[in-house]
Amino acid sequence: MILSRTDKSDVGRISVLVRLWRSKSTAVSMVFIVILAVVGLLAPVIAPKDPTAIEIFREVEGEMINPPFPPSAENWFGTDQLGRDIFSRVLYAIRTSLVIGLLVRGGVMIVGVGLGLMAGYLPGIVAKATMRLTDVMLAFPALIIAMAVTAILGPSLSTVIIALVLVSWPDVTRLVYGQTLGIRASDYVVAARSLGANNFRIIAKHILPNIASPIIVAFSMGIPGAIMYEAGLSFFGFGIQPPMPSLGLIISDGRGYMTVAPWYTIFPGLTLVAIVLAFNFLGEGLIDVLDPRSK
Amino acid sequence: MLKLIGSRLLVLPLLLLLLSALIFALLYLLPGDPARIMAGEYASTETVERIRVQMGFDRHPAIQYLTYVRNVIQGEWGRSYQSNRLVLEDIKQVFPKTVKVTLAAEIMSIVLGVSFGVLAAVRSNSWIDRSLMTVSVLSLSMPLFWLALLLQLLFAMRLGWLPPSGSGDLFSRYIILPALTLAIPSSGYLARITRAAMLDTQQADYVLTARSKGLREFSVITKHMLPNAWLPIISVIGVDLARLLAGVAIIEVIYAWPGLGKYAFDALAHRDFPALQASLNVLAAAVLFVNLGSDILYGLADPRVRAEENA
Q1: Å from A121 to nearest chain B CA?
Q2: Which of A207, A264, B5, B180 is the most core-located residue (most Cβ within 10 A)?
């Protein structure tokens, strides 16, 4: 769906929010995402415990027991093998997930939209080469390639972002390429060109505003994937490294205690599912409002 | 139609070449000196240098790449640094395992996805529809590795119905958990597509005619709606199969299923360059072939595509 000119005004922007708000599931997911963002930002203030505080034994009904301790009023998600509070660790890890989701999609948009515009606007050999490259990139086993990239660069927050951008841009390039091709031939672009507008002006003033809706949808719909990929990379030891918190890392640590302390694996995973679900619902809501024809 | 297949087949070698070049570049950049890895940790510098010259690691990367392509075409895929076994022989052993688990997952996903999708469409806007669609969104929102751990915990460790990991003969119980894990998210996706495709046919004239003829609801669904809903479903199955191949490595590692994905993962962990190179190339090439196959299948299934190509 193409945004009409008036939609670009502030009135248009406000009405998009209002329309998003009207769908119950989207409204709930938006509130949840705001809460997640606040939790992520304020984790040090909100967390009930110090996420690194170790508790090696605890007295229960006159008996000494060792961690991992099960969920209780004191430790909502239980503790890990060192007695550290999993709920507090999860709150810190949410920040990492959100940062990854936003920065990876930001990078993907820069690379993907840039290459897509280039291929769509410069047909011939440039377009052919770019699109064949996307074909090949889409065939790669993304997770293993991302692992190899973080192995090359040394696993850390920034290299995880680079690796995930590197494996995720082709989808967006394909989308933008198709959209640009359609608009390039439209009357108003032809008219603008005949009036002497240069390529840069045409792209900035005519093409980009008209493909803004699918780009926004693609940005949002890709966030859950980026968050899950980061968790996967960290789970296998090719992502975030301790002491930086990550949901994938907590699940990886919990794997060894799955039979004696299932909460250790289950709660961080459920948190991950909740984050991903919220962004999926937001994405669907955005499609309904901005891009209903793509459904 | 023939023209379409022909042009796609012509591009394929080019894509394979591009693919292998990208993988070569990636591995060239991987840290770890192949000559040192081959010689072993305690080898003298002279031995390492001798191996470097012997294997051609001292030559220009472009020449190394071209030599690699020539060797691959001649069937010389090198030896694993780890086991010293021929990589081609290893691949011949592990690739069928991956095909097996992927196909088993695809079949499960089609059976579950299409039947849930049809059920949801037939009972659209009922509580059945709503709960099925909620489950399908949920299934798409779970990270594969976590889902694998949960199913392992439930079916292997708590209930003890299935072995937690490993592999056995064909039709053994070992394949159920890995295949089911892979199938769950894709069946959720297929269920949504099927539901939408079925609802699209609901209002079509031929369905209204069939209903007004007094046909039983069951035959309206199976004889008139499903055959017309197949087209979008078929096109999704190809995409889905490619997606399964992308996710299969995670599953194979967690369930210790000795397929190509686990082989690639182990090779990466041990910097076993020949094994990693071969497995990445085969995995990606398999996806390219699946994409090609599904495009051709789609063309055959849709008379409109055939007509377009002839026009």
Answers
A1: 23
A2: A264
